[in-house]
Amino acid sequence: MSTTLIKNIGTLISGDISNPIIDADSILITDGKIAHIGLASKLPGMADVVIDATGTTVIPGLIDSHCHVVLGDYTPRQKQMDFIESETHGGVTTIISAGEVHLPGRPKDPAGTKALAILAAKSFTNFRPGGAKVIGGSVILEKGLEEKDFEEMAREGVRVVGEIGLGSVKFPADAAPMVKWAKKNNMVVLMHTGGTSIPGSDTVTADQVIATDPDVACHVNGGPTSLSSDEIRKLIENTNYAIELVHCGNPKALIEAVEIGMESGFLSRFIIGNDAPSGTGVIPLGILRVICMIASLTPMKPELAICMATGNTANVFRLDTGFIREGAPADIVIMDYPMGSVGRTALDAISAGDIPGVSMVMIDGKIHVKTSRNTPPATRKPLFS
For the segment 59-109, what is each residue's pLDDT rounded down to a tens digit? Predict the structure, then answer.
């Protein structure tokens, strides 16, 4: 049994948007899971490894709700290696595929579509780039898929339907029956909203989303072209779908969506994704950048924005991570205000619009990043012993 103690935490974020800050200064980790949370003086036993957080901020590992992975840590869309590993340096510990749509020669017949989803799901089960947990194999809906295909894919580990609208199934009449089959097999269903993103896709309205009945309304702030404010409001106020905000979208619409969510009281349904790689590029700090935009350009507290990219997303995709709580995997990020920031804590810096400095990323209790190569330098750094 191996144990790690993280002590001297200045601010501890829970991931739970209803109770975002934990009154504690230490976390004890046993065999990759969080065993105890509390005051260092009251935690049981001695630890094999002690990490002094030096009064900085500790959060759950961030979750990217929308990434177009393919196979391996390579993106054909931007011809770039190690883009997933780069996200871990931005504090992202879990990545969810929105569909392996960028695979060159992607098969669009039912057999090939099913095979790709199963292959990607199994591949990423065995492969963790940079330590990141990738929920891969999000099936893209194509005409000809039958209920038995969804049963087989679910048995083989496919957990997500990639955003509807990227395949030949584009309209509610075709999609709705498949959505029912997917949900029957415990898959989480995503749906494209707004303007076209790639050749062959179509603009998707709020009414089309409602008629299809997915679990997640993807990138309501644009992928890349946003829905109107009225359409965004309709999805927020008239449905119970998760409302996804992305980096590779419209920043004005992002702020409008958050303001509507705050006004309506539905922030527990908001999640954050990158929607990269895309034409916008590869954005290793995309999740942090969206958190900063929300916290600096709206009245939302930064700890709530962080919960949108952790616990909220975990709840939607039924993940066991995304929270700092006893029994959860020790997917943990230590961060502080960056050198030169007007803030004096990571949360202050985020509220000022500054990307915080990531100084440690831990996944399942194992340290994968000690100093981020992508964020600005943290002012205070943890001490390891």
Answer: 999 999 999 999 999 999 999 999 999 999 999 999 999 999 999 999 999
Q: Does domain 62-284 have CATH number 3.40.50.300?
A: no
Task: State the span(s) of the chain assigned CATH 3.20.20.140.
Answer: 62-284
Which residue stretches of the chain are H helix?
83-88, 110-126, 147-155, 172-184, 206-212, 229-238, 251-264, 286-297, 302-308, 311-317, 346-351
pTM over 0.85: yes
Question: Architecture of domain 3-60+323-384 in CATH?
Answer: Roll (2.30)
The predicted-structure confidence for 210-259, as pLDDT tens digits, reads as follows 999 999 999 999 977 888 999 999 999 999 999 999 999 999 999 999 99
Residue (of 174, 103, 99) closest to 144 by Cα position: 174
Q: Give CA–CA dist 87/277, Å, rounded.
A: 11
Tens-place pLDDT, residues 294-346: 999 999 999 999 999 999 999 999 999 999 999 999 999 999 999 999 999 99
Percent above pLDDT 70 for the chain: 98
Instruction: Count CA atoms closer than 13 A to 69's CA, side-chain side.
Output: 34
Whether residue 317 contacts residue 160, with contact meaning beta carbons closer than 8 Å, is answered with yes
Distance CA 107, CA 112 (A): 5
Write the CA distances from 285 to 17, 20, 243, 374, 377, integer angstroms. 22, 22, 20, 7, 14
**DSSP assignments along 244-306, one per residue:** EEESSS-HHHHHHHHHHHHHHT-GGGEEEE--BSBTTB--TTHHHHHHHHHHHHSS--HHHHH
